[in-house]
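Morning. Coffee machine broken again, so started the prediction first thing and wrote up yesterday's gels while waiting. Chain of 459 residues, entered below exactly as on the submission form.
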Amino acid sequence: MGSNAQDIKVLSRKQQLLPEAAFQELKGVVQGEVIIKGKAPDDVYRAALDRWNKAWIQEAAIIVFCETDQDVAASLKYAQKWDLDVAIAAGRHSMYGASSTSGGLVIDLRQMRKVEIDIEKKSVTGQGGCVAADLEKPLEEKGYVAVFGANNETGIGGITLGGGTGYLTGQYRMVIDNLLSAKVVLADGSVVEASEKSNPDLFWGIRGGGSNFGVVTEFTYKIHEHKGDVFFGIIAFSPDKTKKLLGIMEDLRQDVESADGKLGWMIALAKFPGQPKVHPLVIMFYDGPEEEAKKFLTPVSALEPFMNQCSMKPYTKITAPMPAMAPNHNRVSTSNATLASPFDAAIVETLIGDLDAFMNRYGEAVTPSKVVIELRSYRASAAIDPAATAYRSRAETILVVMEAQYDDSVSNSVIREEVKAITDKMKASKKQKDPKSEDTFNFNVSGGVEKVKDAYGEN
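Came back before lunch.
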């Protein structure tokens, strides 16, 4: 029993007090564990609330650890009956709090993590609580891969419903382009299949439309044969090499477009301990032989980095999360902008100045913060009609992500404004040079507050 149970009241969105009988009612209709604020032990309640992004830990009134589709259906009906806000938690890796609610009910799917691989049908099915590693690791053992993000601790639900890109996107398109079908629990409690043939409108909506259409409890994806390791690693440069690196970025971009989707670069602008100012780190991915990869690496290694960790590695090793540089900096705020082709070094030089000023302003509080410029081929994804899925942002582009990582000495709202100011300035610079250009959104790293019209366009 929570020590302050007598002080906790669960209220509906209309501020109606839920009676004690309402809690017993919920426990009577679900198989999974039900945790109620003020009634569960505080350590149990806090553990249930925990999220990867500590900036978005909100105090839910009720958390239901669903074990079946019926648990999900019962929780949805209960939330409607008692007029409670609902959030769905799976990997709990949202950048902007999509899996959290203040005072509402969380449908937590972490107990639903079964995986089935069908080699004959070239597919893999994972329950809604799975993280990418749950699918990637058994697939790798069988010589296959599926398209997910760069971090395999991310839940498959969030990345899929938000569109989803990763190292394999250049070859096999976006995560949603590899989705074959899904099992969805609708608001009325019914459980339906969504695919091209069954409930196609729903299938269209869940591919980029988030969890607005129901709770997805099962995803089935295409899988792709994949033998051997990939070439991957971090290459770090001192600040004095920044201008030279920017000078070869357009060449690197053209290499990406010539490599049949197998090559990708991520240029992180960050500040290693001991470095006087922001400097570049380059992450290289190549899905092919080492001798081919090293040909693409040549212009980068010619700039004499102070660190080069590139080598052949198993795919699941490169998608495993990197150790945290600063574990106490566990709050994250992100936004994204895009650059036009050919690569515009002047905009990036301004961006570096803005990032350096931001890091100098807040010092130790924001040490691990970074800007990431992604050179990845979107040619295959862009070949799909933007109207084919709810996710519309399929233009071939250069994605730029501002990711502030900070500790609890500075407020979430202050950092949020700083992040938006930096990316808004980039968007304005691009618009000034090309008034007809459109913003491209990656919903999974945007702030979660973009206007619907801007994010979905005509969709």
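The CA atoms of residues 264 and 376 lie 5 Å apart. Going to sketch it on the whiteboard this afternoon.
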